[in-house]
Design brief:
heterodimer, A: 143 residues, mainly alpha, 5 helices, 66% helix, B: 289 residues, Serine Threonine Protein Phosphatase 5, Tetratricopeptide repeat, 16 helices
């Protein structure tokens, strides 16, 4: 058979073995917990989905930059009423990057007999943990 | 296919009664039970029951008894994929395609395996080849929808599902796919209608019942406040909310902006907390029967 479509390509492919979270669900912890919660969960999920190194770095980098921007804006120019919404916007920006990089890989991964696992527990833990961490850093260290 | 027992088992299988088909197959005479067709029916019955390991075993026995067969290779390929054994799936499907390079089911199943391995370019070429052969085959509609879904093209997936229903108005699978693709776009009414019609057309399939429960949950009154998120997606809803909050501030109405912002925050909390509770509550209610 000379048909190139019928040469095996899957045998060398790496396939996720750990059940992923639905990347769309990461918006909740990102919104309530802030950019660090969103990027840590996005990073962990990206590893489950076997994302490339550069995409994982992009997620981590976006999280760091979004957190730095949130901290800098809060500590300098923002009036108090806008502070909490900027945290949420920074988180949602991180989620946008996570979702854009993970949607296809996630939808492929759930076709090999694996269902997504619930993000509710880890999501609440990350929201509270990283939310407090960001708050403590900004209000304890910077302000 | 010879023998009355085999014919009866086949009829039961076609009527989506795999349990009874297996029972019928267990009563075959020793000679009939060694017929390659018997192994095929056993494997197909296990496949309908989502018992993937048993499907592979029965299909492999069929290959031993009757020699290479494309349909058996397809059953093995699908079952291996569902267990996450993509390499074994590919091996079986390629063995089948070397016997029958134009086998529609094998082309579609190999495309599905490539999708599961996130090799979407190759999957698309295989789908194209299947579609060139039989553009209006049900399997081709289904795999095109699956490809569009995997690519993240939810609107296109729904359009193909509409064509599928128009071509096969009696097909439960077509209605289920239209329901599922509508649900992905947050169109709860269409999703529920599709799921209901699928269940009506074929009440025996567990997946359709599951989908119908999900679409019913989405129509629950407590889910109404969450609908904009599902319908328009988080990005548009968010941009709208931020535009309103800051717009009100610029119009020198900080009080109203504050009230709206608090309401928005509460809605976000609600959309995180309430849907899992509604889902759990409704599932418990329906499982009770």
């Amino acid at each position: 058979m000379t048909d190139e479509l019928f040469t095996p390509t899957i045998k060398d492919a790496k396939v996720p073995t750990r059940p992923p979270w639905n990347p769309d669900s990461i918006i909740y912890p990102a919104f309530f917990g802030g950019p660090l919660a969103g990027s840590v969960l996005g990073f962990l999920n990206g590893r489950k989905l076997l994302l490339s190194r550069s995409h994982l770095l992009l997620i981590a980098g976006t999280g760091t930059v979004a957190f730095a921007a949130r901290a800098a804006l809060t500590a300098t120019v923002l009036p108090s009423y806008a502070r909490s919404i900027v945290a949420a916007i920074a988180g949602v920006v991180v989620w946008l990057v996570v979702a854009a990089l993970q949607r296809k890989a996630f939808r492929a991964a759930i076709q090999n007999g694996r269902d997504a696992v619930s993000l509710v527990g880890p999501g609440i833990a990350a929201s509270i943990g990283f939310g407090v961490l960001e708050f403590a850093f900004i209000y304890g260290v910077l302000l | 296919m010879s023998g009355i027992g085999l014919k009866r088992a086949q009829a039961l299988l076609m009527a989506d009664r795999p349990q009874e088909a297996l029972r019928e197959l267990a009563t075959l005479s020793a000679e009939e039970a060694m017929h390659p067709g018997a192994f095929y029916l056993r494997a197909a019955a296990f496949s309908q029951l989502d018992q993937h390991a048993e499907t592979v075993t029965a299909a492999r026995q069929g290959l031993e008894a009757g020699g290479p067969d494309p349909d058996l290779f397809q059953l093995i390929g699908d079952a291996e994929r569902q267990q996450g054994h993509l390499e074994a799936a590919e091996q079986a499907l390629l063995s089948g395609l070397s016997l029958a390079p134009n086998h529609l089911g094998l082309l579609c199943s190999y495309a599905a395996a490539c999708m599961a391995a996130n090799q979407l370019g190759k999957a698309a070429k295989l789908v194209e080849r299947a579609a060139a052969q039989a553009p209006t085959a049900a399997a081709v509609y289904a795999i095109r929808i699956q490809l569009a879904y995997t690519r993240g093209e939810d609107r296109k997936a729904q359009e193909i599902a509409r064509e599928f229903v128009a071509e096969y108005p009696e097909s439960a699978a077509a209605h289920a796919l239209l329901g599922g693709t509508s649900a992905n776009r947050g169109q709860v009414r269409e999703a529920d209608a599709g799921a209901r019609q699928a269940v009506a057309a074929d009440p025996t399939v567990g997946d359709y019942a599951e989908l119908a429960l999900e679409t019913r949950i989405a129509r629950h009154p407590l889910m109404t406040p969450v609908r904009p998120f599902i319908r328009f997606g988080p990005i548009k809803t968010w941009i709208a909310a931020i535009a309103i909050i800051y717009g009100l501030r610029m119009l020198k109405m900080p009080m109203l902006a504050g009230v709206f912002a608090i309401g928005w925050f509460l809605l976000c909390v609600y959309s995180w907390v309430v849907p899992p509770l509604v889902r759990r509550w409704m599932k418990r209610r329906y499982r009770a029967f």
